Each structure stands twice: as structure tokens, then as C-alpha cells.
Structures
1.
Amino acid sequence: MLKILLPVDGSAYGEKAVAHVLKLREQSAGLEVHLLNVQIPIESGHARMFVAHDELQDYYRDEGLEALKGARALLDAADFPYVFHIAVGHVADTILRYAQEKGFDKIVMGTHGRSGLMQVLLGSISEEVLRRADIPVTLVK
């Protein structure tokens, strides 16, 4: 069984990566897919003074679920089993750490993320994951 980590951010590129994994299923039986959304932590001490820890965790969860919505809908429509996770941290570091800790065989992700600045940042994130990963990485354009 090929264990695939599929980091998504709610962008069209993430959904294209999901479509790529669905095509892989046609070619190979036995895929285990894990969706991962990584939320960027709110580091400001000022914000933390006014927002309770539980409220911040709820915010991360809600934002993560929203970002996962499109990918989950595609996998659900294809009746493809998956597990989803939401993490908080530096995006590339979190993806790489998660892949290593959970023993994934491959990472499949979009080349870019959301529009504007997020697209630039997430494009560099995919490049960083590609450079630093010690397992195969497929970038989907």
C-alpha cells in the first residue's frame, strides 16, 4: 500500500493535486491518502493577550476545515477513503516533519497556493518541501 501525504490549502492547485491522486488510484490499487492543512500560527503576543487559547484553537480548526473543504468534496465524490489532519506551524517544516513521523511514502502537492502573496509563499513552500524531503515529492501544476 502506497501511503500518500496530500498537503492542501484550499486553492485550485491543491484540488489539482487531489485530481492527480485520483488518477493514481486508477493505475494502482492500495493507496492510503492523508490530507493535511497547515495553519500559520498567530505569533503576536498582543493578539494572544485578547484571544483565549481555546478560541485560537477553534479558529485554526475552522480555517483548516474550510481549506480542506474542496479536497474533501472531490475525494468524497469519488468515494475515495482518506484521513484529514489540521496542524499549526511553519508550513514546509510541518509538512516535512509530519511526513517523516507518520512514515509516508510520497508527498503530492500543488505548485502554488492561494492568490497573491499566499501564492508566492506557497510556491516557495512547495519548492522547499521538494528540496528538503527525503521521500519522493510530486508537484502538480
Note: The chain has a mean pLDDT of 90.
2.
Amino acid sequence: MTESRVPERHAKLLEYAQSLTPPSGWKIEVSGDEIIMMAGPSVIHQRNLLVVREQLDAHRPAELMPSENTDLASPNVGKLRNPDLTYIPIAVVESGGNDVPAELAAIAVEVVSPSNPENDLVGKVRDYPLMRIPLYLLIDPREGGLTLYSEPADGVYHQQWNGRFGDTVPIPEPFAFGLTTSALIRYPD
């Protein structure tokens, strides 16, 4: 297969995935040649996301808006991902459509799912820097861990901050604040 055909194949796969209608409570993502369908999140997942969202909302630049479960697309690298929370320019609403160019996202936030942790811990750590998403905040309620990835270049994140629930996460520009995590809840054992 030639390089010129790869983006075309990825674009067709993205188009097909976007034409699917998942069952209520499910969402669809594309990574390379895979279409991934996932069930909706638990209430612990949702609560943890709320704790983070409220703080990000308080520090978000006026030109960004929060969006949960928005399709971020990167057709040239064959990726369609749907982060739990992202912040995108308000101006993208004017363009319409169901997906947003991934490189416009300021951050992707994921709360690890107990049923499919590899998707957040491996797949998205691989995909988000390729999609040029500058910040990836990973919250893992299974063990109470936190990771902030930043500085994507050459398809990988070059900086990684690790912590535990209760630590303050140093969220850089465009938010520039310390995210408190003492209110996050772990999944039951």
C-alpha cells in the first residue's frame, strides 16, 4: 500500500464510523484500522469528571468551551477519538458538523474505564499526540493515579507528570492553575 492511499483509507473508515448509529449509551471511536464501541460511563466516572470540569471551567480562556463526548477527528492519521471532556474553540460551532479537528482541542481529559482501561492507558496515549492534542489528563480511579501528558511532537508526548488522588496537578497554559484532586473517588475494589 502506498502512503498516498493511507489517508484515503482512513478518511473512508472515519466516514463509515460516523455513519453508524450506536445503541443509546454507547459511543464510537476510530484508531487506525479499528472501530471501537464503548458503553457509557458509571456514576463514579461522571462524578470524577465533574470535579475536574468545574475547576477547568473556572480557569478556561473565554474563547474555549467545554465539550463532553465530542468527536475529535484526524483523518490524515486515521483517528477519531471521543474524550470524556475536551475544551475546543467556541468558533468551531459556527462550522457545524459532528466532529472537530483534533488539533483545535486545548486538552483531552479521560477517566479510565474499569471495563476497557487499555483504550485510555495505551490507545489514547498513542493517538492523542499523533492528533496534536497538546494536553492529555488521565484520571485512573482503579488505583487512584493521575497522569498529565504534554508537549506532543513527532507523534509522542515529551513531558509526563504523574501523581495520586490528593495531589495538585500543574495544568499549564491556556488554563494555568493547580488542579486539586482530593475530591476524586476511586472505584470500589
Note: The longest helix spans residues 43-59.
3.
Amino acid sequence: MLVEQISAIDPKWKFQSLGSPTTWEGVQNQLDDLRLQRAAAFARVKGDLRPLQVETMREMQRLTDRAYEKAVRLYQSGGLKDGLSKEQVIGRYVDNEVRRNLRKRYKNYQAKMDANQVRVNRREYDTSKPEASYRLPDARVGDVAYDVTLSRKTVKDPQIRGFFNADFRPQLVVIIRPRQLGSGSSYIINKPEVGK
């Protein structure tokens, strides 16, 4: 069904596969891959970023979980040393891995990576004050900002308020934390109402 949907959106697209997966993990990886390809086709061909917003959240969650698992193993084996606290060095590693891999995924799927809509770790300016400032969300797709973090954040955090005040005026900030930190680790913060 996903292959048919992508072909309908983008008739030039060709399904490339080495055959049907033989394991549950292989099937899941193929489904994840096709969902991201469909979302990229919507963005590329129709200019509709909503499917890419959803798939970006899913992909970043997968990347975050994998990076966190690897970072903990590296830290425990002495492979991550930086003079920082355990949380800081693991957090920095996770951030860098997620950003690097997300850029690759967007490039592989030819997702629209233009200066205004789909961005990874780029400055988002707030020019509403005489002295312009900026924030660096880990990713941005349209009017949604994504932040990978080990700590819980709320709309009261300066970083999150800074995202909402940026010129692109996001409607949502998606907080993505490793699932290894417990249930409900990732969540969405809605744009606060004016005056609250």
C-alpha cells in the first residue's frame, strides 16, 4: 500500500528493495523507510510538510534511542571522556549523532531541505527586539521545532520560550528524550496563548 501511495504522489519514484524482509526487525525497518519516503514525497512534490513533521518525530525518536544506547555503552567502556559530567557528555553525543543521521536521512529521501522549511540544527532568529537573538532547535519542519534532550523541559524554560518567539513562530515544540529514560519521556509542548 505504501509503495502504491508513493508512486501515486511521485510517478518518477522507483521502489528499490533487495527482497522481502525475513525478520520482524527487517519488516519494521522497511515500513519505517517507506513511511519516511512517502512523507518526503509529499514535501517534495506537493509541498505538504505535515506527513514529514510526523515522520521526523518518529525518525528522531528512533535515532535518539539508538544514540543513547550507544553513548551509554561508550561511556561505560571509557570511550566517551570530555571532562564533562556523565549526562553532559552522553547528551552531547546523542545530539550530534541524531543531527548527523537526520541530515543523511533527509538527503537520502530528497526531502526539501530549504532555508525556510526543513532544517537541521540551524539558527532560528527572533528579530522582534532591537537586539536580534537566535535559538538552535535540533530540527525544524515547517512550523514545528524538535529538541533532543535528556532532561525534561517545559514552556517555562528559556530555550523553549526562545523557540516559540523565533520568527518562524512554531505552533509546537516536540521534546524527544530517549525511551530508556522511562515512559512518557517524549512529548509535545503547544504554543502558549498570548498573555499566559
Note: Residues 2-190 form one domain.
4.
Amino acid sequence: MSSKNIVLIGMPGSGKSTVGVLLAKELGLGFIDTDLIIQQETGRTLQAIVDGDGYQSLRSVEGRVLLALDVQRHVISTGGSAVYSDDAMAHLGRHGVVVFLDISLAAVKRRIGDHSMRGISRHPQQSLEELFEERFALYNHYGQITVRADQQTPAQVCEAVVRELTRQNLAPGMH
């Protein structure tokens, strides 16, 4: 049985947390949401960090939290900006399979609504469209597996991820 993790990356609203819990249950793995670790360690919401210290501060804290992760057999739901840290992504990739939950810009807008309330790490003047384009390239770069997640329910996305992990013989929980 593999000791690898499954690392979920993708835009806010792509379903990383929801699908992550389902995957952990399906495969008998632990579950970690790194946004929650950041909030627990800082005692502040992601939005409060962005508002008080700026988006670079949130990215810095996120990179530090990701590099400190030392777990096996977990599904790790990362924050949308995890891909800005090369070191963190290399660390996560060494210990896990990186899965990109790919959704369209229209789906992001539909799912997150007023993005200013989501603690999204972005330049103050950056539009959601610009952020989407910038991150999409990074998600594609780091994702070892890509699963379309905008036309399916979280359960269907979970099934698609398991199917792809199994097809590539990468599923940590499978015997």
C-alpha cells in the first residue's frame, strides 16, 4: 500500500475541500485543509490576513504551512494560491500525487460569487479573469492528473479522481 498523499489544487470554488473529504472517505485516508491550518496558526481568516497584511503575506504563510506538512496517506486540500510557491509544490509533489480540479472561469464566478469575500490572494488591481489566466498555467504545470470539475457533482468528481488514480496505478488507499 502506498504512503503517498493526494494533493488537490485548483481555483477557489473548484471543490478541493468538498471533494477532498469525499476522497479521504472513499480511500480510507486522512484529510487536511491547509486554509484551515493557516487560520488556526494565525488566529485570523484568510480575508483578514489579505486585508491586514496584503496578499503576499497570505502567500508567504501558505508556503510555510505547506512546507511544514509531514504526513502520509492524506488528502491535502490546498489554498488556491499554493502554486505560487515552487518549493512548496516540489515538497508536495515528492510526497504525493498532485490533482488539478479544473473548472471554467464561468464556474468560478458562479460558485464563489463576490470573490472579494473569499480571502483570495491576488494583486489589489487584478481582475478575477487575470487571476484565473495566471493560475491556470500554474495548475497545468504542477498537476500530474487533471480532472474536469465544473459539470459534475462533488461525488462524480471524486469518482473521476479515483478512476484516474487507479488507471495510473497511483491510488494510495487501493490495495
Note: Helices lie at 16-27, 34-42, 46-53, 55-68, 86-94, 105-112, 128-142, 154-167.
